[in-house]
Amino acid sequence: MRAINLLLEEYGESHQNPTNKWIHWICVPIIMFSLIGLLWTVTLVGPLTVGMVFLGSASLYYLRLSGNLFVGMLLVSLLMAWGIMAVEQVAGSSAWKIHFALFAAAWVGQFIGHKIEGRKPSFFKDLQFLLVGPAWLLHFVYRKVGIPI
After folding, report:
1. From its phi and psi, is residue 64 left (phi > 0), alpha (psi between -120 and 50) or beta?
2. What is the rounded distance in angstroms from the CA atom of residue 15 to the CA atom of residue 33?
3. Which of 45, 50, 60, 99 is the most exposed place for a label (fewest CB within 10 A)?
4. Residue range 37-48: mean pLDDT, rounded
5. Non-local CB neighbours of 136 within 8 Å, separated by 6+ positions
């Protein structure tokens, strides 16, 4: 079995409860958006930010797992980057406060979901599951429209 399939299967083991799944559909994208947004506020050199480096690194991780998954996550990442830049345009130097509030609220939601599930979040076992969570959601979309992982 391919590594991506094993990771998705293992991640899914602690996400069986329908309420927890529903919470993840809301909170995982918010966590991803807000984390990248927070990292986007840290400039490295010129216009290059830590958020951009993170997205590039995460993209390489997804490419290593699956070409199709890479394409989908790249599109999601580009949409999130566009949204983050829109937040920056509106909020200016206070953008980090918006991202922080979203990040904190979404993690509260995640822990509520796992309390309902009765199982610890997967990333307690292995940090790479923080990147697997968004891919796990995308794999359901792929399955629905007939795109192989």
Report:
1. alpha
2. 21
3. 45
4. 97
5. 8, 11, 12, 15, 24, 28
Helices (H) and strands (E) in the chain, counts: 6, 2
| Cβ atoms of residues 149 and 5 within 8 Å | yes
Q: Report domain extents, the chain.
A: 3-8+19-142
Contact 83, 30 (CB under 8 A): no
Could you tell me the pTM of the whole model? 0.94
pLDDT of residue 1: 67
Taking only the tens place, the pLDDT of each residue in 95-124 is 999 999 999 999 999 999 999 999 998 888
Cβ-count burial of 80 within 10 angstroms (0-12 exposed, 13-18 middle, 19+ buried)? Answer: buried
